[in-house]
Amino acid sequence: MSRSFSDWATWHQMEIFDASKSAWREGEKALIARACRQFGACVPPSPFGPGDDCALLGRGAFLQNVFATSDAVIFGRHFDADAPPRRVGEKLVKRNASDIAAMGAAPKFALLCAICSKDVSADWLDEFCRGAGQCADRLGIKIVGGDMASVPERFFSAHMTLLGDSDFPALLREGARAGDKICVTGALGFSRESGRHLDFEPRIAEGGFLARRSCALSRGAEGASACTDISDGVAADLKNLLSPETCALLYSERIPRAEFGGLRASLERALCDGEDYELLFAWRGEFGPLEREWRGNFECEICEMGKIFDASEFARRFGIPDARQCAREIFVSENGRPPARFSRGGFSH
Amino acid sequence: MSRSFSDWATWHQMEIFDASKSAWREGEKALIARACRQFGACVPPSPFGPGDDCALLGRGAFLQNVFATSDAVIFGRHFDADAPPRRVGEKLVKRNASDIAAMGAAPKFALLCAICSKDVSADWLDEFCRGAGQCADRLGIKIVGGDMASVPERFFSAHMTLLGDSDFPALLREGARAGDKICVTGALGFSRESGRHLDFEPRIAEGGFLARRSCALSRGAEGASACTDISDGVAADLKNLLSPETCALLYSERIPRAEFGGLRASLERALCDGEDYELLFAWRGEFGPLEREWRGNFECEICEMGKIFDASEFARRFGIPDARQCAREIFVSENGRPPARFSRGGFSH
Q1: Percentage of the residues of chain B whose pLDDT score is greater than 90
Q2: I need a surface site. Which of A255, B195, B285, B295 has the fewest CB within 10 A?
Q3: What is the pLDDT, as a whole number, of residue A290?
């Protein structure tokens, strides 16, 4: 491939692989933020760009109220040689559908791009495709295009871009305020051991219900004020629902913990395992009536497990000297004891 | 990761990597066709599914007349360590934009998913992202989302899904008939040596013009009847404009051949190199008036290089015993000599 001299000069300082300058040095979040800075003016603010579960395409003649998201399954990272290929295909569709559901939309059209090494077995790929296709069909998704590329050996990845639409405005991560209740569907933790990271069901109808009920807020009625799906774990994903002025308090005994092999997930596992693909949302109003309406419509469990506080008020009430130490933090109260700050590493008392 | 017993039984016959059963055995086209068969009922027919330059999303309340396409740049396959990262980023955007242009639409929204090994240099990635971002901005594209995933070492791929829209019906690959002229923009061949596989300009305005003029066909006026962009080379891509009843005749001396380093591309190179990213289209009507209108609007060259024939009539006229040998084939006439069949391997007289 040819180069002009000026390209050469640029390239000369520009080795693609150089572990000492790793793009991942500061973690995934920093890498994505840095990439977006480099993309520059073409990146719109959230929810029209990166930052929520989907991007909302809201400014084109034919692209009104369209939701778009992309996610992958990569061998060695999202699944291993033990995973049944059919389930891997299903997982690809479902993890994207879960992002669409978290904004209250319905998934419609998908593009599937695979990078498939020359030694991937045709039988394995058949099963993978059958899993993806049947799952797409069941969820009302059309696979309309994509791409297949080859690399030499021992590599398989599949990216799906999924588009959805909704009759209601998008249910965003942003929007919760002090006093809103923190609610969650299903049960949390043990997603790997139990195989639920492959078996989960995206909460599409439930997300649609919450989006419909979030419209009611503008009329002063009760409704959902913010929502996301749980992929990294509550300890990480709940922070995305908090503004810099708020914090979250979870009541330990109310956190719905998954069971597997006769064991119940610990608090740590329930909040940090991730890949639950449940809906985590803020509800403005009474939980009782919501719960009754929910049970009339859906099979999955729903739980009120905490509350959003104004960070300054929270600091005053619990005698924390600096309110800034509370902002955007998650606290857990165990059996009525004073709340302790919780993060991925556990409690910091 | 856990499995039920029935999963285990399936899995046991299902190694992901097994070169003796390679999914690529019968080539890319067969692999994609096989994958689509496995996807099953969720795959719509072209142009609403795979098979054209983009998929047309034409059946949803909010997804009317939306065009979607996905393409990648993969290290070692679409670029190598010599390629300036900024140009690689530009290429990712432009090769997708070229697919949108080939259907006469305008690109609008993109999702960018990268798989980036831990040893990819942050400087390299910055340059890549700047190239993609600036190119997107210049072409009116918003990068609204995507994903960054890591793998251990020496790997970089980036997939883009690009959405576009149009005020006109899609300009499809299908639609040409006997008598239509075969036209092409720009010049063909030497795309690697000349660096044009990185430097090309997607023909967005030109595609829009052709889509507008294809509407005229239904009123009996002159216009474009089919279009694609040239990625695999004319020898392969022109076949996509032919129905089972037609064949193409190209006039050797009219084929626009690129020059590089004082050399002019041979016929073989012009038709087979690929990655030209020019528009290849069928025109129903006189070429003269089109050419004059084109020159008033666009800088890039346009060329009438051949004609579409009814395969049976072609066989009769040139004394070919079996018309089936002509169907969907490309013939080249050199300086008025009788046409010879041309394929990727060269002429077969």
Answers
A1: 68
A2: B295
A3: 97
Which residues of B fall within a CB distance of 8 Å from A98? Answer: none
Stated as kind and residue range, the H or E segment containing A283 is strand A279-284
From A75-84, B57-66, B207-216, B266-275, the region with the lowest mean pLDDT = B57-66
* Range 256-275 of A in CB contact (< 8 A) with B: none
Closest CA to B214 of B282, B143, B315: B282
pLDDT of residue A117: 93
Q: Do B84 and A14 touch (CB under 8 A)?
A: yes
Half-sphere exposure of B41 (CA within 13 A, CB side): 6
The whole-angstrom separation of Cα A291 and Cα A285 is: 11
The mean per-residue pLDDT over the stretch B276-301 comes to: 97
Task: State whether ipTM is beyond 0.85.
Answer: yes
Q: How near does any CA of chain A get to the CA of B133, in Å?
A: 4
Question: What CA–CA distance (Å, rounded) separates B65 from A144?
Answer: 14
| Separation of alpha carbons A270 and A265, rounded Å | 6
* Residues A86 and B40: beta-carbon distance below 8 Å: no
Minimum distance, in Å, between the CA of residue B342 and any CA atom of chain A: 27
- Name the residue among B11, B44, B113 with its Cβ closest to that of A142: B44
Question: How near does any CA of chain A get to the CA of B206, in Å?
Answer: 21
- The amino acid at residue A247 is C
> Which among A243, A269, A241, A242 is positioned nearest to A255, based on CA atoms?
A269
CB pairs under 8 A between A and B: 380
Residues in chain A within 8 Å Cβ distance of B127: 10, 14
- Distance separating alpha carbons of residues A24 and B114, to the nearest angstrom: 13
Mean pLDDT value of segment B288-305: 97
pLDDT of amino acid A345: 66
Fold for B44-165, please state it: 60s Ribosomal Protein L30; Chain: A; (3.30.1330)
Q: Please give the structure tokens belonging to residue A61.
A: 């003649």
Residue B159 parent element (H or E): strand B156-165
Residue B127 near chain A (CB below 8 Å): yes
Q: What are A88-113's pLDDT values in tens digits?
A: 999 999 999 999 999 999 999 999 99
Interface of A with B in 182-211 (CB under 8 A): 192-195, 197-198
* HSE-CB of B63 using CA atoms within 13 angstroms: 26
* pLDDT given for residue A1 in this prediction: 42
pLDDT in tens, B217-243: 888 889 999 999 999 999 999 999 999
Where chain A has pLDDT below 50, the residues are 1-6, 8-12
Residues of B in contact with A126 (CB under 8 A): 34, 38
Q: How confident is the model at residue B152 (pLDDT cuts 50, 70, 90)?
A: confident
Domain ranges of chain A: 31-165, 181-348
CB-nearest partner of B133 from A40, A87, A136 = A40
| Contact at CB, B127 and A10, closer than 8 angstroms | yes
Residue A45 touches partner B, C-beta closer than 8 Å: no
pLDDT digits (tens, 9 = 90+) for B86-134: 999 999 999 999 999 999 999 999 999 999 999 999 999 999 999 999 9
| Among candidate residues A92, A67, A141, the one with its CA nearest the CA of residue B43 | A141
- For A181-348, CATH gives 3.90.650.10
CB B145 to CB A54 under 8 A? Answer: yes
> CATH number of the domain at A31-165, out of 3.60.21.10, 3.30.1330.10, 3.40.50.11890, 3.20.20.70?
3.30.1330.10
- Whether A64 contacts chain B with CB within 8 A: yes
What's the length of chain A?
349
